[in-house]
Amino acid sequence: MAQYSRVSGTVGLITLLNPPVNALSAAVRQGIVDMMDKALSDRKVKSVVICGHNGKFCGGADIREFSSPLTGPLLIPVIQGVESAAKPVVAAIEGVALGGGLELALGCHYRIAHSKARLGLPEVHLGLLPGAGGSQRLPRLIGVPAALDIITTGRHVTAAEALKLGLVDRVTDRNTVDEAVKFALSVADQSPQSRRISTFPCPHHPDLDAVFEGVMQRVRQRARGALAPVACVQAVAAATLPFAQGMERERELMATLFTSGQARAQQYHFFAQRAVGRWSMPSGARWDKTKPVAVHKAMVIGLGTMGRGISVALVQAGVSVVAMETNEKQLMDAKQAISSMLERGAKRRGVAPALDKIRYSSDMQPAADVDLVIEAVFEDMALKKKVFQQLSALCKPGTFLCSNTSGLDVDQLASETRTPELVVGMHFFAPAHVMKLLEVVYGSRSSPQAVATAMELGKQMGKVSVAVGNCRGFVGNRMLKPYLEQAFFLLEEGATPEFVDQVLEEFGFAMGVFRMSDLSGLDVGWRVRKADGLPDGHSARIRQGCRYSPLGDLLCEQGRFGQKTGRGWYQYDKPGGQVAKPDPWLQDFLEKFRTQHGLVARRIDHQEVLERCLYALMNEGFRILEDGIAAGPEDIDVIYVLGYSWPPHRGGPMFYAAMVGLKKVLERLEHYHQEHPDIPSLKPCNLLRKLVVSGSPPVQKWREFLQKPQSQL
Ligand SMILES: CCCCCCC/C=C/C(=O)SCCNC(=O)CCNC(=O)[C@H](O)C(C)(C)COP(=O)(O)OP(=O)(O)OC[C@H]1O[C@@H](n2cnc3c(N)ncnc32)[C@H](O)[C@@H]1OP(=O)(O)O
After folding, report:
1. Is 103 noted as a catalytic residue in this protein?
2. What is the number of other CB atoms lying within 10 angstroms of the CB of residue 250?
3. How sure is the predictor about 524, in pLDDT bands with cuts at 50, 70 and 90?
4. Alpha-carbon distance 208 to 216, whole Å?
5. Does the structure show a pLDDT above 50 at 150?
6. ∠ at Cα 624 (622, 625), nearest 5°?
7. Is residue 78 pLDDT above 70, yes or no?
């Protein structure tokens, strides 16, 4: 709803009221209509100010309303009503003006922003476009190139940048509403006629066609099949038409997006990201009942790629860091790399680099004086155990001990310490100062406070933290295993790496499985498999009674570790080269391999690649839910979108399973398992069967079908 009062004698003040972000629900839209009527019919009122309750102008349309039939007045005529008002209307922007919130502000005749306010049109991240006139008014106000940038990236603009662009008329450090009221008094006698953006012509640009072409090309490349970014460009292109025609085009494009299914997936992802913050543990411990401990000083042990990124992310979050590496040369290299990462980051954010927040050490002694340690040494259990033993002896009581392991047993590490309750996994993703995902892994003895502290620290570092249980590979890497396995089996059966990758990239992954393996290094998995014991003779296609593909091992034996060695599943022009080219050697190698094992290559189509890779991965997701390793499908989906480049417009693997239809997923898994009974990951999981028997409920209801895992505390 909206509140109304008359202030300073002649200013009508309308306050949007819908905590926490004053989203434009039906009641708020109705409130704006009613309060504008009141202000316009009050003879004493000469001008109007619109502001938001509690220091936030408006977070946009109420996204929760998108999933049910729209009620109340539509936003477009509400904004038109504001713009066509005969009295000047001033937007007082504090906190945020996003999406429909900014579109409402663009309907006002003047905009005054607080210096800390952020403005933006992030609809593209929800699978939409600024469909309440934003795609038409913004380019008219600030020009096509700047509008295209803001609308296609969905980025937030600071008040200072907004002023520079001409998006706001004034920026203030003082009370924004007071300033807006003063401003409203000063323009009370002026006609708003010339301030109606819908009447502006689209600013001239010498080569608009080239601008649109260039942006469209970039957007298509980045979109990975998402419709919204492309529709955003098309909508802005319509701003060169008369306003009414542009609005009609905006409406048509918006209608297509609304019904595409992609918008639903991206809106699900928006709420899933927020839902994972409300974590719980099998013991019943929960986010709202556990207080995290503030971390002022942390230590990072091991300064390889991960340790460097973690150190940078900690410093940028305001935490003092001791970065430790035993090898002096590596320590010096790391120091240089971290300093330049901090400098680059600070330059981007327009602040001074916090180089004084980090110091370097070649021994562990400083661990005695920190609140939390993150171990990021080589992925080797024996080495990690040794580090945890040393930490246990050195650290002051209460120090949290975290491991950046990507899949090793957190309980084993905890058992090396005197304080297993303070041990958790903090699994970052490379590059750790960039990637938004953090898996916080609780072991059987991790205390709720240790989990809460790691979750909160992740948030402070700008991450979306997801609490997960302890098992091999946790959630993300555990699900990756059957996915990779299927890709290898498909090669054995007749596919090529190029074809498999092409299918997965068309689906929307940033990289297909083989290009991704080449990038991350084939030797990493090889080392883990060797530690597990490879099958005798290395050519055996059976391991523990199940089908096993030795292809990856055989490539590593040839020294083909991927991009870094210039050879892997593809060939590169040099070690470290980035352009992957099909390698005739690999073709030959695959043919020999098939002959040696009596395999006859068959034609494998697009559908089989997609179904076998993705359904095997989804099936493991259902197992993870069944085992209580993830609390709900949202946790898995957030991990896959933010950590494994699953396309956001497909919601995540569990959401996608629901979109495809659980019955179909079950049938196809049954079919493939019948054809390949020696591949257990294709055997449909019980939870999937249970959901199908229960009528395939929507993904938001799956939690009701999950058994509460027994407390292990
Ligand atoms: C044919 C029909 C035509 C219709 C035309 C419509 C055109 C306009 C479309 C839109 O405006 S779409 C919405 C655009 N806005 C956004 O995308 C902003 C989304 N919100 C955010 O980015 C952030 O929430 C924030 C505003 C920057 C605040 O961040 P903060 O970290 O402070 O809090 P959060 O935890 O993110 O959010 C708190 C709470 O509020 C809920 N929420 C936030 N925004 C909305 C919203 N627009 N609608 C409904 N709910 C919103 C959020 O979910 C959190 O609640 P819980 O999920 O924790 O319960």
Report:
1. yes
2. 25
3. confident
4. 12
5. yes
6. 65
7. yes
How far is Cα 365 from Cα 61, in angstroms, rounded to an integer?
53
CA 465 to chain centre: 11
Measured in Å, residue 243 CA sits from the centre of ligand 1 at 28
State the distance from the centre of ligand 1 to the C-alpha of 23, rounded, in angstroms.
7
Give the C-alpha separation, 709 to 687, whole Å. 14
Our mutation pick for probing the ligand 1 site, out of 21, 32, 103, counting the most ligand atoms within 8 A of Cβ, is: 21
How far are the Cα atoms of 589, 666, 687 from residue 52, in angstroms, in the given order? 66, 49, 46
Is residue 110 within 8 Å of residue 47, measured between CB atoms?
no
Strand-pairing partners, residue 571, are: 567, 581
Tell me the per-residue pLDDT of 525-547, one tens digit each, with 9 for 90 and over.
888 888 777 665 545 788 888 99
Alpha carbons 540 and 247: distance in angstroms, whole number? 64
Phi-psi region of 427 (alpha: psi -120 to 50; beta: other; left: phi over 0): beta
Atom 30 (ligand 1) nearest CA: 21
How many whole angstroms separate alpha carbon 527 and alpha carbon 522? Answer: 9
Residue 645 DSSP label = -
State yes or no: pLDDT of 677 exceeds 90.
yes
Burial (CB count <10 Å: 0-12, 13-18, 19+), residue 9: exposed
SS (HEC) of 571-616: ECCCCCCCCCECCHHHHHHHHHHHHHCCCCCCCCCHHHHHHHHHHH
Segment 383-429, tens digit of pLDDT: 999 999 999 999 999 999 999 999 999 999 999 999 999 999 999 99
* End-to-end CA, the chain: 47
Q: If DSSP codes are grouped into helix, strand and coil, which group holds residue 500?
A: helix
Contacts of residue 318, Cβ cutoff 8 Å, sequence gap at least 6:
354, 357, 460
Q: What is the CA radius of gyration of the chain?
A: 28
Tell whether the torsion through CA atoms of 477, 479, 485 and 488 is positive or negative.
negative
The residues pairing with 464 across neighbouring beta strands, listed in sequence order, are: 437
Tokens of 254: 């918006």
Under DSSP, the state recorded for 286 is B
Backbone angles phi, psi at 5, to 5 degrees: -150, 160
The pLDDT of residue 527 is 84
The confidence score (pLDDT) of residue 713 equals: 35
Give the strand order in the sheet containing 170-172: 2-7, 11-16, 47-52, 89-93, 110-114, 170-172
Beta strands in 86-238 (DSSP E): 89-93, 96-98, 110-114, 118-120, 157-158, 170-172
Q: How far is the CA of 60 from the centre of ligand 1 (A)?
A: 6
Q: How far is CA 174 from the centre of its chain?
A: 34
- Which residue has its alpha carbon closest to ligand 1 atom 21? 59
Q: Report residue 52 CA to chain centroid gap.
A: 28
- Residues at CB less than 6 angstroms from ligand 1: 20-21, 23, 59-64, 75, 96, 98-100, 122-123, 126, 128, 131-132, 254, 271, 274
- Give the pLDDT confidence of 91-106 residue by residue, as tens digits: 999 999 999 999 999 9
Cis omega before residue 431 (within 30°)?
Answer: yes
CA–centroid distance, 122 to ligand 1, in Å, is 10
Q: Single out the residue of 166, 146, 186, 54 nearest to residue 106, CA to CA.
A: 166
Nearest to 146 by CA among 166, 131, 130, 126: 166
CA distance 615 to 455: 30
CA nearest neighbour of 83 among 162, 176, 166, 193:
193
Burial of 710 (0-12, 13-18, 19+ CB in 10 A): exposed
Domains of the chain: 2-258 (3.90.226.10), 287-474 (3.40.50.720), 495-502+509-596 (1.10.1040.10), 606-705 (1.10.1040.10)
* Catalytic-labelled residue, pool 83, 94, 123, 620: 123
Amino acid at 67: S
